[in-house]
From TrEMBL:
Native organism: Rhodanobacter denitrificans
Protein name in UniProt: EF-hand domain-containing protein
Secretion signal span: 1-24
Top-rank taxon, per record: Bacteria
GO molecular function terms attached to this record: calcium ion binding
Pfam families per UniProt: EF-hand_5 (PF13202)
Record flagged with keyword Signal: yes
Amino acid sequence: MLAHRIIPIGAVLLALGTAGLAQAQDRVHRFQDRSGAEVELRSGMATYPADGPAPAFSALDTNRDRSISPDEARAYPLLATDFLYADSNRDGRVSEREYARWTAQR
């Protein structure tokens, strides 16, 4: 009978410990560099504002060369973060076809 109570309690404790570990990953480290300047280093998962529909390809292709460069992708943080994946042929640019594929998968 006691074993039936210990297992659920153990599962709850394990779940609580895992949640605490996930929170512990967001850290702030403060130190001084060699010149004496204060440095703050934050680590953890990036957060983005709620995203709605992806912008139109033409809105990101500001120079109208029919592709999105890494600099142009910065206007859409989700694409900038996932640029290497979206650029499936690895030519350093995201074509309209690659962008359509990428937006369909998000």
